[in-house]
Structure formats: structure tokens, C-alpha cells
Specification:
- It is built from five helices and five strands.
- By secondary structure, it is of the alpha/beta class.
- The longest helix is centred in the C-terminal third of the chain and has 22 residues, at 107-128.
- It is globular, with a radius of gyration of 13 Å.
- The protein starts with a strand and ends with a helix.
- The model has no long low-confidence stretch (mean pLDDT 93).
Length: 129
């Protein structure tokens, strides 16, 4: 069974590229254009991981991360941004991000980071059992 990834980014070209690359890596991808839409998807169906941009109109990826931590505490969230700063990275990690990436992200690096986050999630679930 392939991992179900929810990709959240307001840039259509980025969403499309991520979908193509992640599908080539064997992942099932659902796209959202903003955090509100992402939360609707999360309420409607299960996902294994959320990959979100930071800077989006209306709400930020960090705000989405905080909402995910409240409603789905075991769901890993990987944050990516084109405007990386140490403060943003620290903020993301404080809110429980599985990882923090600076765009543009190479396909191999992205897949590796997502697989690592999914593996960590599986190990935590195993420990709980």
C-alpha cells in the first residue's frame, strides 16, 4: 500500500511538480491550495503525511501545522518554504514539524525526507502497541 500524502501549496506549478514526483516515487497524492482546504481533506479521509508550504494567503503552513498537531497528533507534517530563515525553522520544529525544507527541493531529497518521516511514524506506532 502506498503512502497517502496531502500536499498543501498555493502555487499551482509547485503542486503539480510535487504530485508528479511523489507519484513516480509510488506515493498517493492529494492536493490542497490552502490550509482550510487541507483541513477539509484531513477531516474527510486518512493521510499518512502532510507536506505544506509556509507562506500562503489566509493562513500559514505553521498555523496548519498547529491545527494538525491538535486534531491528528500522530500525523507527520513536513514544512517547506522558499523564504527560509532560522526563526521559521525553529518555529516549525517547536510546533512539531517532522522536517523543514528550503525550496527548491530536489526530488531525491524530498522523497528521502518523506520516507524518513513515514518510517518514524511507523516506529512510533509500533512502540505504542
Amino acid at each position: 500500500m502506498s503512502a497517502r500524502i496531502l500536499v498543501v501549496d498555493d502555487d499551482r506549478a509547485v503542486r503539480t511538480a510535487l504530485r508528479v514526483n511523489l507519484r513516480k516515487a509510488g506515493m498517493d497524492v492529494t492536493l490542497a491550495t490552502h490550509p482550510g482546504e487541507a483541513l477539509e481533506h484531513l477531516r474527510a479521509e486518512p493521510f499518512d503525511l502532510v507536506l505544506t508550504d509556509v507562506k500562503m494567503p489566509g493562513a500559514t503552513g505553521i498555523e496548519l501545522l498547529a491545527s494538525v498537531r491538535e486534531g491528528w497528533p500522530a500525523l507527520p507534517v513536513v514544512v517547506m518554504t522558499g523564504y527560509g530563515s532560522v526563526e521559521d525553522a525553529v518555529d516549525a520544529m517547536k510546533h512539531g514539524a517532522a522536517d523543514y525544507l528550503i525550496k527548491p527541493v530536489g526530488k531525491d531529497e524530498l522523497v528521502l525526507v518523506l520516507e524518513r518521516a513515514l518510517e518514524t511514524k511507523a516506529l512510533r506506532a509500533e512502540l505504542v502497541q
